[in-house]
Design goal:
mainly alpha, Amino acid/polyamine transporter I, 19 helices, 75% helix
Length: 463
């Protein structure tokens, strides 16, 4: 259990960081990270995993959004009560034991953060293949240059990084809205959204409708991935007890609506046969096909600009947010001391930002996009499950701390959210055991690191 002094520290708003992120900035971080390349191609994976049933695919997008929103509400309660850098690492420390928080942070340090950065950095130049003849080596070189450039930029302070995030958020929504509104108003197809074929497709694949939905929801969750990152910069949010929950609710809720409408708009332009043929040929960029059909060659330019801006914003947001978790690990004594040093002028954890960039580059050179996305989503679900359960645990352990925001419909909402995350983790073990096992290896490695740093910390405390 935390000592009284430590509890006062994690619930205090006093900080060495600069609080320069407002509500719009918070929404931009969430939206900037969440709305990436996934909006343009992940719809195909969701459709494929629902047996090509369009209606069920939309339901899976809504379920993915509701899961993310319910998880976000849990994070909102924890973040408003403990407005410090580190996000879920901090909450897991307080609810369970510092070792649990460390394993979450270590997994993010070695895989989650750099893996997400690497995946998006690879996806961005891949989207440019329509205009540029670029091979796999060229894509990786492009990705590395992007990571280096944004890593350096983020070393010059959260204010500059937040400005870039705000601008990219607005800029990328423009082409997305053009495509979506064009499809909704100009599309002449009335899509068949009935669920009649879903059970047959599930039976044909040797499963049932529930497992099929769960498998499809996991694909949608990659598009929603990123809503947890605002809490990692809570120490740089203005009036975090009010603005943090507000930004989470607006950001996740708005993006759920955006994703569902965007995928429905695709069905207004492309026939079921066209969608099936494209996915069967390995062409997953349905949004590009819609834009071409509506606007001709100009449509291809619009969608490519949208994808590039979306991924650029996601990349910048991740590079900005994730290192604050590594900072928190070092601050509480279980990581390299250099990670807790803030730049004397810009007040950012420079070492953490730079090392994340280095690991991201290594992952770019060693993994492909599909492998990275599956690993990141799986490990994220494990720790999101534990973080959701931290809400009732912290209420019981610390009944007297100020909670400006409390989860809606408690405890039913928390129980349902936790069971969903647990179910998705178990389902992934059955559907993709290789990725699941690889995802579990990283926390196991983290145990040995924790033992090392814990022994080192105890020796220093004895001196």
């Amino acid at each position: 259990m935390s000592t009284e002094n430590n509890l006062q520290q994690v619930t205090s708003e006093k900080t060495e960081f600069k609080r320069e992120i407002g509500v719009f900035g918070g929404v931009s971080i969430i939206g900037g990270i969440m709305v990436g390349s996934g909006i343009f191609y992940l719809g195909s994976y969701v459709i494929e995993r629902t047996g090509m049933n369009l209606g069920l695919s939309l339901i899976c997008w809504i379920i993915g959004g509701l899961i993310s929103l319910m998880g976000g509400l849990c994070y909102a309660e924890l973040g408003s009560a403990m407005p410090r850098a580190g996000g879920r690492l901090l909450y897991l420390n307080e609810a369970y034991h510092p070792s649990v928080g460390f394993l979450a942070g270590f997994t993010d340090w070695l895989l989650g953060g750099p893996g997400s950065v690497a995946a998006i950095a690879i996806a961005l130049p891949t989207a440019l293949r329509f205009f540029i003849d670029i091979n796999d080596t060229g894509i990786k070189v492009f990705a590395i240059v992007l990571i280096i450039g944004l890593t350096i930029y983020n070393c010059f302070g959260v204010k500059l990084a937040s400005i870039l995030q705000n601008v990219s958020m607005i800029a990328k929504l423009i082409p997305i809205v053009i495509i979506m509104c064009g499809a909704l108003f100009l599309g002449k197809i009335t899509p068949d959204l009935s669920l009649a074929s879903a059970s047959e497709a599930a039976a044909a694949s040797g499963g049932n409708i529930i497992t099929m939905i769960a498998f499809a929801v996991v694909a949608s969750l990659w598009a929603y991935e990123g809503w947890t990152n605002l809490n990692t910069v809570a120490e740089e949010v203005k009036n975090p007890r009010k603005n943090l929950p507000l930004a989470l609710i607006i950001g996740i809720g708005g993006i759920t609506i955006l994703y569902t409408l965007f995928n429905f708009s695709i069905f207004k332009v492309l026939t079921h046969e066209e969608i099936t043929n494209m996915i069967g040929e390995g062409n997953f960029y349905l949004g590009t096909a819609v834009a071409k059909k509506l606007f001709g060659s100009a449509g291809a330019i619009i969608v490519t600009v949208g994808m590039v801006l979306a991924m650029f914003g996601s990349l910048n947001g991740l590079i900005m947010a994730q290192p604050r978790m590594y900072y928190a690990m070092a601050e509480e004594g279980h990581f390299f001391k250099s990670y807790k040093k803030l730049h004397p002028k810009y007040k950012v954890p420079t070492t953490a930002i730079i090392i994340q960039g280095v690991i991201s580059i290594i992952l770019v050179m060693s993994r492909n996009l599909d492998e990275l996305t599956t690993l990141v989503v799986f490990t994220g679900m494990i720790f999101n499950f534990l973080t959701v359960l931290a809400v009732p645990i912290c209420r019981k352990k610390f009944p007297n701390i100020e909670r400006p925001y409390k989860v809606w419909i408690y405890p039913v909402s928390v129980i349902i959210t936790a069971l969903i995350f647990l179910g998705l983790v178990v389902n992934t073990f059955f559907d993709d055991p290789t990725s699941a096992m690889l995802g579990c290896i990283v926390p196991v490695i983290g145990v040995f690191f924790y033992i090392y740093f814990d022994k080192k910390l105890k020796k220093e405390e004895k001196r």
